[in-house]
Each structure stands twice: as C-alpha cells, then as structure tokens.
Amino acid sequence: MNFKRKILCIGAGYVGGPTMAMIALKCPQYRVTVVDINEQRIREWQSDNLPIYEPGLLPVVKEARDRNLFFSTEIDRNIKEADIIFVSVNTPTKSFGQGAGMAADLQYWEKTARQILANSDSDKIVVEKSTLPIRTARAMERILNSNDSGISFEVLSNPEFLAEGTAIKDLEAPDRVLIGSRETESGIRARKELVDIYANWIPRERIIESNVWSAELSKLTANAFLAQRISSINSLSALCEKTEADINEVAYAIGTDSRIGSKFLKPSVGFGGSCFKKDILNLVYICRSYGLIEVADYWESVVKINEWQEKRFVQNILVNMFNTIAGKKIALFGFAFKADTGDTRESPAIYVTRGLVEERANVVISDPKAIINAKKELADIKEYITYEEDPYRAAEGSHAIAILTEWGVYKGLDYKRIYDSMEKPAFLFDGRNILDHKKLYETGFNVFSIGKGPLKRI
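Above: the chain sequence. Below: its structure as tokens.
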C-alpha cells in the first residue's frame, strides 16, 4: 500500500503507544511505526497482552496493527524512512548534579536527537511529545541543524494532555490539541502538516496553534494548575477535620461557582502519577534559574502540601490505633496512583506503605491491576509486605483497612463480611472518600476519612 506519509514515534510507553495507535486508527492513509529499545515491550505491543493497562486501548491497537500500525526495535532504519518523527522518550527528574531533584533529565532526549541526526538523509519534521522544559526545542534544533549535508529539520511541540485511565477517550475527543512551531514560513508549513493529521478526526476549532515556546510552557503549567487544585482542597480537608466542617460539602459549594468549577476538587490522600510532581518541580527549577524565587516558592508549595497530606494520613492511622501499629496487620486497598490504570509512579500508596513499615506494621497490598508494579516499587522492603489481589483475603485478620485507590470494585464489597473477618476493634481509613461512612460505622467500623470528623466507637 502506498502511504501518504510515514510517521515514526520513538518511545513505546504510556504516551507514545496509545497516541500512535489512535493516529493509525483515524488515519489509515499514514503508516505509523512505534520503536523502542526495549524488546520485551515491543513484543507485548505486538500481542494481546499490552505492556500498559488502559481501558479501550486493546481494540484500537488490534484494529490498526499490521494494517498501518507497526511496532519495531529497528530504530535507525525507521528513522531513515520516516517523514515525521514523534519523540516520546522518558524525561525523568534529574537525580544527579546541578538541578538534582527538580530539573528534567534530558540525557535520553539528547541521545535521541543525535540518533535522528545520524540516521537521516532527508528533510524531517520532529515533534516533541515528551514533557520538556521551555526552550528545549531550541536545543534540539541546534543539534539537528548542526549537519553540513543540507538536511532541514523543523522541530514542533505537541504536548500530550492525557489522563491515565481515560487516555483513549482523551485521544478520541480531546478538549484541545496544541501544536507549536517557529513562526517562520517553514515552521508554519510543518505545523500545518501536523494540524492536517489531527484534523482527520478532531474539530478544527479544538486544534490550537502557537509558537513553540508557548506550547512547551503550556504543558508544564496545565499540570501545575491541576495539581494546585488538589493540594488546595487537601489543605482545606485538614481544617475541616478540626472544625467539624465536611470537605465534600465545602468542595461542592465552591465547585458550583462557575468561575471555579468542580473538577479536581476531590479530597484524597494525595496526587500521584508520572507528571504532576515532576512537571511542577521542573517549573520550580526553571523559575529559580531565571531568578523568579517567589514564583518558584509558590509552585513548590503545591508539592509540599501533597507530601504533607501523605504524612498526615500515616500519622492519622498511627494516632487513632493507640499510637502503635507494630505487629498489626493493615490491608491497603489499592496501590495504583488512580483507578483504571496499573501505573504506580509517585503513587501516595508508596509513601503510606513505607511509613507503615517504618512503624513495624504488617502490610498486605491488594490491587486489581498494580501488584506487579507495586512489587517493583517496594523491592527494597519486600520482606515486610505481602500481596493479595482478593480484597476479602487481604482483609482477613487485619486490624485496619486503608483505601488508597478509588477503584470501583471497592465500593461494591461486602463490608459486613470484611468486618466479621477482622480483628476488633476494626478500623477503616478512607483515603479517597468513596465509601458510605455512616453505613460502615453502623456495621461496627471505626471510620476515618479525609476532611470529615471521625466516626468512632472507642
């Protein structure tokens, strides 16, 4: 089959795989190839056992795979053949040297840029899909256009705005698609090529065009604003617990203000995931590098409140269980950072688990999708933890249950059966406020939630 264009994505992770699958599904006139150095990951993309769990992803992959969607480890060859290259490699927080703990680690991104340069013999459009610091496109341009062979590269920014658990819906009907380029004739022409791809299924008014620097910064600030709302409501949850106000009622009241809106006002044990903390700290580092200390401190406080909320949750368990949990079995319901994903990166459950283990509790972790990743996250303390996918078995003989992920399955459990199987007095700490607390109290539990007064029997 003759394809209109050959699209390549370097990086077959949470962003690259689903995004390319949707483009291939909606644009059969384009050949779409996803490459990665991880051979096992590529084999999984070629099977029905995909390397990531995302509702609705498998049917999309299966419909396009081997028609115009392909997965490969042959990076160099596919770079040479591609017309448009999406770069979706990992950009973790730097763990060494200048900016450690805050700045983005761009070593994989730079290696990819040099690999593109080394294997290109024709003009190409290179699209930043990874979350990157502002003005990273300029650095990539300098690397790519350092060639003396007359090859031209146009670098675009097309940040992803996917939420794990709803990524397929987000890709099929996004609020917006943002594409940034240089405001030059060639830059605008390259931008139009990418606009034309997305316009195959996305209304034109939802495709936003900007300069490349605005696009890069918009991604960081979007995540910062969302995380800010979570930390704001979580900070108020502590005040509600002291004053007998109900955080759910407060959140509803302020959320009905059309200027504020109701999204991201759900109190919880804290936010997690691969983006929020990383992007905010990256923003903090950038602000400090420009001497904007007050701005940096403001955004860093969002992360500090989140860490404080996680610590407060552990402290709440300790204080309310007679100031000792040593030798007590505590069942954690959920380990993924949110429902409908197996992703555990920066999950609040990591801190909670480690805090409980430090107090010598016997921790059992239950999660329908995240146990494999949980074992990786906690490999250094594995001797203190057991894993049980069945929540009923996990709860047997436990002194307390802590809800850490808002999986729908936890709402439908038989908590009378669970209560009967537990040690007494039985405690339940709802870190997501998803259960009927009054009913749990009537069953016999001592109930502690986020932003509400406790329902105690002792």
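The mean pLDDT is 94.
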